[in-house]
Fold each of these.
Amino acid sequence: MTDTIHLKAQLQACRSKEDTFKTLVTLSKTLPRLSAEEKIEDNKVKGCESAVWLIIEENHGLHHFKADSDAKLMRGVLVAILSLVEGKTLADIQQMDLKAELAELNLSSYLTSSRTNGVLAILEKIQVPKQ
């Protein structure tokens, strides 16, 4: 998993929409693919323009995430999101302003209204997991 500080520096260094796109596509390659068995309806995030799957596992109070998408750009966005929350407690994750954290990563030009809805659905699933 890419660490937040390195990822933030990478994305903030982008000077154009094309740079950001290339960086997100490069980041997308670092996200391990989910197996067909993991790409089930229960793991699918509702409200995303592209297909997105998110698996949340808790181990000793720490949350670990696996995610995948059929869209390269969204996979890059998932790397950015997961770098913010990986290995944290639910209480820590719920106290974070994830929207503000993502805004600092220079992604606004890629978050079209429909993509933003998908990202918000992902953030909600991360911050308010099913019991």
Amino acid sequence: MSTDAADSGSKGAVTVTPAAAEEALSLLRSEEMDTDEAGLRLFVQQGGCAGLSYGMRFDDAPEEDDTVTTHHGLRVFVDPASLNYVGGSTVDYESGLQAAGFHVENPNVVSECGCGESFRT
């Protein structure tokens, strides 16, 4: 398992904004998960009109081959295959009148579908 305990992340790793970390930690605590061990898993899966889509879930602990980073107290787990697509990305949390949710700003994307739910690198 690769680990980067710094709040800034390493080159190629995923970073998280303070707003996203705060929201994720709040959700983890509401699920009564141990924030010292559990974290947010970011992954890429086949799907969507552009070919790939993001997935996020909370996991109790990282897998052995995950890259693990910590940002503003939030642990983030990314598997090696997904890291190839999302390395260098930033996870943010946006809230507004029409919607609220996590958003991935991915510098590797060359095109996205119209709704922004899927992408191609």
